[in-house]
Amino acid sequence: MDLPVWFEIGSLIVLVLILVADLALIAQRPHIPTPKESSLWVVFYVTLALIFAGLMWLFAGGEYAGQFVAGWLTEYSLSIDNLFVFVLIMSQFSVPRRYQQKVLMVGIIIALVLRGLFILAGAAIIEQFSWVFYIFGAFLIYTAWKQAFPGGDHDEEIKKESVVVRLLRRTIDISDDYDGPKVRTVVDGKRMFTPMIIVFVAIGMTDLLFALDSIPAIFGITESAFIVFTANVFALMGLRQLYFLLGGLLERLVYLKYGIALILAFIGVKLVLHALHENELPFLNGGEGFSWAPEIPTWVSLVVILVAMAGATGASLVRMRRDAVVSGR
User: What Å distances lie between residue 194 and 28, 101, 106, 177, CA to CA?
Assistant: First the structure.
């Protein structure tokens, strides 16, 4: 059973309207959300994703719904990692907390655009060249290793300005201070950009790097471009509220990177096994698939993702409690 076309089109229209309404809300009332407000929004978006999964189950069956949930959870975990980098960028450029909602929303929109382009490209490549799964799988396994064992001071590496940001500083006039959430301002009668432009560019570059990880990862769960895109949209919706809800807790989730690394490594192995099973490379097994390479079902992926994230979060909370007891002494 396939998803009805009207369901796909209707879903995309509704998601766009929700994002536009969210953006309009920020533009009209920039503020620092309270923990209660943030919690309600996060619960709302999570509930919305689960309702969407239920509708997919109703109209297309459990396999599609399972692929969406597994993809959504994978992208959600990677988005939380992305959120941690956003925290570092906000701190590095001293963005006033009152205007961080706008910065986060712009970052989310950039992420959606970039991921949309990557999804279209990825779907087209996969359709024509199934061997690309070998590359995707190897890349994810390498990324998982770097995630778990980054080497050196990872935070300092993130805080280093990219070539694009340094070029931007040299080529345009940028004021020393922010002017609210504005990108342009006037200083002594001269039109200039505010530091907000640098923040947007830094977040855009970060989004580009994370899209390189997230899109191959979710294509390891499903080859449906619709599921890949909607899973990304639902993972990114509510991300700005989650930013304010978690606050300093993000920095104390010390084992989160290992959970994400496990997910990426698992999906990387799954992709390689899939590539071997569907092998079309003439210099491997005469262009025939390897019968011993298993196809890992969606429910196994879902269990691994849930266990990895729950285990990493639980271990981090235990570490936080233990550190609090030690410091209390």
Answer: 20, 17, 16, 7
Report the chain's terminal Cα–Cα distance, integer Å: 61
Number of structural domains the chain divides into: 1
- Closest to 70 (Cα-Cα) out of 309, 318, 283: 309
Q: Could you tell me which of 33, 155, 192, 175 has the C-alpha nearest to residue 98? A: 33
d(CA 210, CA 110): 12
Please return the burial class of 295, using the count of CB atoms within 10 Å of its CB with bins 0-12, 13-18 and 19+: exposed
Contact 101, 240 (CB under 8 A): yes
The dihedrals phi and psi of 94, each to the nearest 5 degrees, come to 50, 50
CB 185 within 8 A of CB 192: yes
Write phi, then psi, for 32 (nearest 5 degrees).
Answer: -95, 110
The amino acid occupying position 86 is F
Residue 192, classed as helix, strand or coil, is strand
Residue 223 Cα distances to 6, 100, 229, 257, angstroms: 20, 35, 11, 26
Q: Is residue 180's pLDDT more than 60? A: yes
- For tokens 């009209």, name the residue: 28
Which SS3 state, helix, strand or coil, does residue 224 take? coil
Task: Kindly state the tokens that stand for 26.
Answer: 């920020």
Residue 54 pLDDT > 90: yes
User: For residues 43 and 308, what is the distance between their CA atoms, to the nearest angstrom?
Assistant: 21
- Site of tokens 């769960």: 221
Given a contact cutoff of 8 angstroms between Cβ atoms, the answer to whether 226 and 67 are in contact is: no
Domain span at 146: 5-328
Q: Is the pLDDT of residue 251 over 80?
A: no
Position 254 confidence tier, pLDDT thresholds 50, 70, 90: confident
Residue pair 107/202 in contact (Cβ under 8 Å)? The answer is no
Q: What are the structure tokens assigned to 126, written together?
A: 């996969």
At residue 187, the 3 state secondary structure works out as strand
Question: Token digits for 175?
Answer: 């004021």
Question: pLDDT-derived band of residue 69, with 50, 70 and 90 as boundaries?
Answer: very high
